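Tutorial handout. Part one gives the primary structure; part two gives the three-dimensional structure as tokens.
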Amino acid sequence: MRAILFGGGLALLFSLLGTRVAINLFTKWGYGQEIRDDGPTSHHTKRGTPTMGGVVIILATVVGYFGALLITQTVPSASALLLLFLFVGMGLVGFLDDYIKISKQRSLGLRSKAKMIGQTLIAVVFGVLALSHWLEDGDGVTPASQKISFLRDIGWLALPMVVAVLLIWFIIVATSNGVNLTDGLDGLATGACTMVFGAYMLVNIWQNNQSCAVENTALCYDVRDPLDLAIVAAALTGACFGFLWWNAPPAAIFMGDTGSLSLGGALAGLAILTRTELLLIVLGGLFLIETLSVMLQVGYFKLTRGKRIFRMAPLHHHFEMLGWEQVTVVIRFWIITGLCVAAGLGIFYAEWVARL
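Part two.
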């Protein structure tokens, strides 16, 4: 359990100090954010704010995790390494997108097709490895499962290998893009991700204490390496907390697609590896709401040939257009995330209690 504290603490410290360094360097190098012309006019003042801060979040998480293992003299697990592969891989896709925006001085980076290809490649490799028998532990448990899961695997919903990989791909792409859509106001996505990663840290700690590897009962969780996943979740929480210090309104730096895609990938990876895929819908309810607002807006616009449901999508921009202050939107959306996290953890614990 000491490793969880070390992982979170080291990532927090690295992110808090490293982001200050990144702000200075990115400003010196001219790595400023380009703003969409069709966005809220209040955002035009943000043009030139340093971006690609997600690089610091990624480095802080990796340093926090491996630093914790070094201090506690622990060997990394297959599940944690897979999660970090997904996290860094999705971050690389986002980095390419951000770099194109900066180098070409435009608000659009990678074309949507190229971005989808990159996300798909990382997601499919992760899915195949996570389901592979090569990565079984001594009890024959693979990092991921071919069964659909809510609070644990649903026994009668086993999927063929190809379908299971497709489901994993969908979860990863949908979640990473959901966080990307949410990252439109100072601190919004960072604060929301901090809460959800904190929730997954608690889920992993509980799963470790009730692991089937320790005592195989009806109450146990058949999850591989839950303690190591808790260390990664703690490092992610600490890294987001440290970054939020500088990303809170008014933001001194943006995470960019480097941060939003990597954090979304990590959330999806935690849901898959902890066998709580459907629970992510509750814990990450804000990301679902933001994504649905865009889907509804685009669909309604096409069906009605120009009419809109919202003044602007994603949803946080709608409230901005209604005259809400940016900080008001952010805080209220954080409250929604907090309620979603409380509901998700409550459901998770209630299911265990109901089995007693």
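Part three, for discussion. The first helix runs from residue 2 to 29. The chain is about 65% helix and 5% strand.
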